[in-house]
Amino acid sequence: MAGAESVSGGQNQLRGILFMLSSGAIFSFTDVLTKVLAGGYPPGQILCLRTIFVLISIAVMVRLRGGLASVKIVNWRGQLLRGLLMAGTSLTFLLALKDAPLADLFALLFLSPLILTMLAPYFLGERVGWRRRAAAIVGFCGTLLILRPTGEVPFSALLLGLAVPFILSASDIVTRRITRTETANSVMLFTNFVMAGVGICLLPLGWTTPDWYGIAVFAGVGTLQGVAQYFLFYAFKYGEAVVITPFRYV
Q1: CB 205 within 8 A of CB 42
Q2: What's 100's DSSP letter?
Q3: What is this structure's pTM?
Q4: Tell me: the pLDDT tens digits for 72-127?
Q5: Strand, coil or helix: what is 208?
Q6: Cα–Cα distances in angstroms (integers) from residue 199 to residues 77, 86, 136, 196, in the given order
């Protein structure tokens, strides 16, 4: 029995890693497209319109995978907290993205696996040995080597950029915890409803009417992020946080 459980656990970790790799590939592509949007649209509008298209893709997924019966919510507090943290991560990233080079911002963003590795024993009860700590550190150093950040980041953007990995790590911890009781469909719908609500509240602060090209980019980013968010949920559902998060460095 112990051997069977070990094999099953190993298979789940592998699934988590594969889902993390898939979500990371998609998010990297959409981050570049978001950088394009950040040059012409206010952060609140980007969050709102992008999330609307995310919700459309999620609605299709809900229809195909269980219908309304699959969106039952058990942990309302955890769901709301995740939604607010995801909205905070997106808004902070968008604000920093406007003034910071993408490579520099990514270098700050990739502090999150290190932060999560340090926090996981206290908030998730996951064991973190020296090998996992070393893997996270080596991954971060490798990322810096590849990105070659310029260091030419305005101070305000630097502060925002530093806030992103901490908020993202908190979001990852909450995600890992609520996967024990919540379905993928319920988490995706509720999180994005919260994010859309935050975006709508910010629309009075700025609006630029998009042209057809802008609408196409919003639609592409939103649809792809909907898929990536599902992959991210299943990554944390199957894999331990300290195992899968270093694979963000790929």
Answers
A1: yes
A2: S
A3: 0.86
A4: 899 999 999 999 999 999 999 989 887 878 778 888 888 888 888 888 888 888 88
A5: coil
A6: 20, 12, 33, 5
Low-confidence ranges of the chain (pLDDT < 70): 1-8, 146-147
Distance CA 208, CA 4 (A): 57
Measure CA 191 to chain center: 11
CB atoms within 10 A of CB 127: 10
d(CA 204, CA 6): 54
Predicted confidence at residue 8, as pLDDT, reads 61
Whether the Cβ atoms of residue 94 and residue 43 lie closer than 8 Å to each other: yes
Q: What string of H, E and C letters represents the secondary structure of 151-173?
A: CCCCHHHHHHHHHHHHHHHHHHH
Closest alpha carbon to 224 in 58, 105, 83: 58
- Tokens linked to 136: 């996270």
Collapsing DSSP to helix, strand or coil, 191 comes out as: helix
Phi-psi region of 148 (alpha: psi -120 to 50; beta: other; left: phi over 0): left
Both tokens of 225, joined, read: 């992020």
Q: In whole angstroms, what is the distance from residue 142 CA to residue 146 CA?
A: 6
Contact, 249 vs 113, CB < 8 A? Answer: yes
CB atoms within 10 A of CB 3: 7
Half-sphere exposure of 220 (CA within 13 A, CB side): 15
By the 10 Å C-beta count (0-12 exposed, 13-18 middle, 19+ buried), 210 is classed as: middle
Token pair of 57 as six digits = 């893709």
